[in-house]
Amino acid sequence: MKVLVATQKPFAPVAVKGIQEIVEKAGHSFALLEKYEQESELLAAVADADALIVRSDKVTPAVFDAARQLKIVVRAGAGYDNLDLPAATAHGVVAMNTPGQNANAVAELAIAMMIYMCRCQFTPATGSEVQGKTLGIQAFGNVGRLVGQKAAALGMKVKAVDPFIPADAIRAAGAEPVASVEELYAGCDFVSIHIPATPQTVGSIGRDLIARMPKGATLVNTARKEVIDEAGLDAVLEERPDLKYATDVAPDNIEALKEKYGLRVFATPKKMGAQTKEANVNAGLAAARQIVDFFATGNTKFKLN
Question: Which of the following CATH numbers is that of domain 103-267: 1.20.1250.20, 3.30.70.920, 3.40.50.720, 3.20.20.300?
Answer without folding.
Answer: 3.40.50.720
